[in-house]
Design goal:
alpha+beta; 8 helices; 5 strands; elongated; Clarin 2; transmembrane helix; membrane; Clarin
Length: 233
């Protein structure tokens, strides 16, 4: 059976694996991967709006992997609309890249769960095979972190190289054209970054389990010995 310190550390590694999965699930189901401001270019061009008047044509947008929303103005007042990525909008985006991002994050969750199982196993038993021990935990965390980081990089590529925000903002508009003024990564995106960071923390925690700390030996007090000569004295 592993010692108390190792049990505690592997339990901590288990919590980190659970946290990684929870963070990714929340990131996928929430709608704030990107937040930004959009300008109704068509409306602004029609009235030849100057800088002070552009405020009347600026709206907000936010979206995630599946849904989002926008609040837009084209000189006709404030309007709100929901954004649904599936089933139609995804066809106007780089659909293959969008699906790859989701797939990467799902695979990261699967390997984070595998890491969880191995952490629980190591907290209860001392494995005889190295792949079932810390080496296996390193491997699964590396794979989970790799796919998580790949999903993050793929999303950044979609956002910057494929002008994702403008494509989302202009669907399914046929009359008005929107351009992106600002775009920022939302909390859903940073949840993915935090999830990838938990695997790095897991590496550190599991590495500590391999350190052999010196055992503190408590010196027993010597018991007084009474001899026959002491009794005679």
């Amino acid at each position: 059976m592993p010692g108390l310190l190792k049990k505690t550390l592997f339990c901590l590694a288990s919590i980190l694996s659970i946290a990684s999965v929870v963070l990714l699930v929340i990131a996928l189901v929430t709608q704030k991967w990107v937040t930004g401001k959009i300008l109704c270019k068509t409306g602004a061009d029609l009235v030849n709006a100057s800088d002070p008047e552009l405020v009347k044509f600026i709206g907000d947008i936010y979206y995630g992997m599946f849904q989002g929303g926008k609040n837009w103005q084209c000189g006709l007042g404030n309007r709100r609309s929901k954004i649904y990525i599936f089933p139609h909008l995804v066809k106007k985006l780089n659909s293959a890249l969008h699906m790859i991002i989701i797939l990467f994050l799902v695979i990261a969750m699967v390997f984070a769960l595998v890491s969880l199982v191995f952490c629980i196993y190591n907290a209860r038993k001392i494995p005889y095979q190295s792949i079932k021990g810390p080496a296996g935990i390193y491997l699964w965390n590396f794979i989970a972190g790799l796919f998580g980081v790949s999903g993050i990089i793929s999303f950044i590529a979609a956002l910057k190289l494929h002008r994702l925000t403008e494509r989302v903002a202009n669907f399914p508009e046929n009359v008005f054209q929107f351009v992106t003024l600002e775009e920022h990564y939302g909390f859903s995106f940073w949840l993915c970054v935090a999830s990838a960071a938990t695997h790095g923390a897991n590496f550190l925690v599991v590495a500590i389990t391999g350190i052999r700390f010196p055992k503190v030996k408590i010196k027993k007090a010597e018991e007084p010995t009474v001899t026959a000569d002491d009794l005679l004295y």
